[in-house]
Design goal:
about 425 residues; Aspartate Aminotransferase, domain 2; Aspartate Aminotransferase, domain 1; seven-stranded mixed sheet; four-stranded antiparallel sheet; 15 strands; binds D-serine; transferase
Length: about 425
C-alpha cells in the first residue's frame, strides 16, 4: 500500500485542493446551492468507511462485516426522521437526480403523467426537462408562475383536472417563495395524484423551522444534503410508511449499487448538527440575510423575479442594467463574488447566456456574515454590475472582499 501523504505522493492534486481551499477562503460564495461543511463532516468523508461494500439495508446486507456500517446508516436514518418528522427515510441516494429518478420508478409506470414546474420558472432539470432521459420515459406537463411571479394554485388545479397526472411535483431550484403544501395536496387528492416535494434547496430552512414542512403532508419528499442542510454531497428520500418498500427497492437494487457509507456517516453528522439549537439560529439568519439583499437590490432598482424572496435565494434580471447574466457572473467572478447565471421566467435569452443571476446566502451565513456584512456585499455586487467593463474597479472590489473574508476565516484547521 502507498503510505505517503497526498502532498508527498501527488503534489499536483494536492496543489489543486489547496488552491480551491484558498478560493473558498478568500471569495464570497453566493451560489445558493453551495455551502461549507464542518470539519467533522469532512473527516467522515475521508474515512475508511469508503472501503466498504454494503448492498442492502441495515440488518439485511448482501456482504459480511457490515456491523459498524449498520450502526452508522441506522443513525443517519433515525436522525433524519427526527429532523423532518418522517415516517420512513432512505439515506442511500447518491445525489438529488438519482433520488428523484428512484422515486419516479418506485411509484409510476413509463408513460405516466407528472405535473411539475417549468425550469425557467424556477423548477429543476430532473423534474422532466426535455433534455433529460426521464422526459423520454414519463409524460411531464409543466406549470408556470403567474404574472406576479407566484405559483397560481387555480391554474395548477385546472391543469391537474385537465391532464389527470399520477403525480404532482413541487420544490424548486430558483423559485424564492413559500409553498402551500396543504393546498397542493388537496388538489392532488381531488385528481387522485401522488404528491412529491423536492426540497433540495430549502431543506435546511425547513429543518431549522423557518419554512413550511411538506414531510407530514406529502407522500414523498426528496432532498440533497449539501445545500442549506450543510452536509456532504448526497441525498435522502423521505416517505410515508405505506410506500417505504417500493422506495427502498427502487433505490437498491432497482437503481443503485453499493451505498457510499462514508457519505452516509457524513449525513448522520450533518443531521446531528442540524438538530442542535444553533442550527435554528443559522436558518433564521440565512433568511434575514436574504431579506437584506432583497431590500438592497430593490433600492438599487433591479427587477427581482417572483417579487422577492421568502427563502435563501434571489433571482435577479440584470438585463435592464445593460448586461447579460453571463456577463454579470464574469464581472462578479473578477470581483471575488461567486454567483451563477440563470434563466428568468420565459427568458428570451439562452441558458448559456441568460438574463438573470441567481444568488443566495447559505454559505456566507455559515461563514458568520450578518446584516452589516450583507449590506457591504449588496453594495459590492451592484458596483461590480454597474462597472462590469472596468477591470480596475472590479479589482478594487476584490481587494475589499479579501479584507472582509480575512475577518471570517473558514477552515483555520486546514491551513
Ligand atoms: N445544481 C443545483 C443547483 O445549483 O440548484 C441543483 O441541482
Amino acid at each position: 500500500m502507498n503510505h505517503q501523504k497526498l502532498a508527498q505522493f501527488d503534489p499536483i492534486v494536492a496543489a489543486s485542493i489547496k488552491h480551491e481551499l484558498n478560493r473558498q477562503e478568500t471569495g464570497l460564495e453566493m451560489i445558493p446551492s453551495e455551502n461549507f461543511v464542518s470539519v467533522a463532516v469532512l473527516e467522515a468523508l475521508g474515512s475508511v468507511l469508503t472501503n466498504k461494500y454494503s448492498e442492502g439495508y441495515p440488518g439485511k446486507r448482501y456482504y459480511g462485516g457490515c456491523e459498524f456500517i449498520d450502526e452508522v446508516e441506522q443513525l443517519a436514518i433515525d436522525r433524519a426522521k427526527q429532523l423532518f418528522g418522517a415516517e420512513h427515510v432512505n439515506v442511500q441516494p447518491l445525489s438529488g437526480a438519482p433520488a428523484n429518478i428512484a422515486v419516479y420508478f418506485a411509484l409510476l409506470k413509463p408513460g405516466d403523467t407528472i405535473l411539475g414546474m417549468d425550469l425557467s420558472h424556477g423548477g429543476h432539470l430532473t423534474h422532466g426537462h426535455p433534455v433529460t432521459h426521464m422526459a423520454k420515459i414519463f409524460n411531464f406537463i409543466r406549470y408556470k408562475t403567474n404574472a406576479e411571479g407566484k405559483i397560481d394554485l387555480d391554474n395548477l388545479r385546472a391543469m391537474a383536472l385537465e391532464h389527470k397526472p399520477k403525480m404532482i411535483l413541487v420544490g424548486y431550484s430558483a423559485y424564492s417563495r413559500e409553498i402551500e403544501y396543504e393546498k397542493i395536496k388537496a388538489i392532488a387528492d381531488e385528481v387522485g395524484a401522488l404528491t412529491m416535494a423536492d426540497i433540495a434547496h430549502i431543506a435546511g430552512l425547513i429543518a431549522g423551522g423557518q419554512m413550511n414542512n411538506p414531510v407530514p403532508i406529502f407522500d414523498v419528499v426528496t432532498t440533497t444534503t449539501h445545500k442549506t442542510l450543510r452536509g456532504p454531497r448526497g441525498a435522502i428520500i423521505m416517505c410515508k410508511e405505506k410506500i417505504a418498500k417500493e422506495i427502498d427497492k427502487s433505490v437498491f437494487p432497482g437503481f443503485q449499487g453499493g451505498p457510499h457509507e462514508n457519505n452516509i456517516a457524513a449525513k448522520a453528522i450533518a443531521f446531528k448538527e442540524a438538530l442542535e439549537p444553533a442550527y435554528k439560529e443559522y436558518a433564521r439568519q440565512i433568511k434575514v440575510n436574504a431579506k437584506v439583499l432583497e431590500k438592497k437590490f430593490n433600492d438599487f432598482g433591479y427587477k427581482l423575479m417572483f417579487g422577492g424572496t421568502d427563502n435563501h435565494l434571489l433571482l435577479i434580471d440584470v438585463t435592464p442594467k445593460g448586461l447579460s447574466g453571463k456577463e454579470a457572473q464574469i464581472a462578479l467572478d473578477k470581483a471575488g463574488i461567486t454567483v451563477n447565471k440563470n434563466m428568468i421566467p420565459d427568458d428570451p435569452r439562452s441558458p448559456m447566456d441568460p438574463s438573470g443571476i441567481r444568488l443566495g446566502t447559505p454559505a456566507l451565513t455559515t461563514r458568520g456574515f450578518k446584516e452589516a456584512e450583507m449590506e457591504l456585499v449588496g453594495n459590492w455586487i451592484n458596483e461590480a454590475i454597474e462597472n462590469w467593463k472596468d477591470d480596475g474597479k472590479l479589482a478594487e472590489i476584490k481587494n475589499k472582499v479579501l479584507e472582509l473574508t480575512k475577518k471570517f476565516p473558514l477552515y483555520p484547521e486546514l491551513q
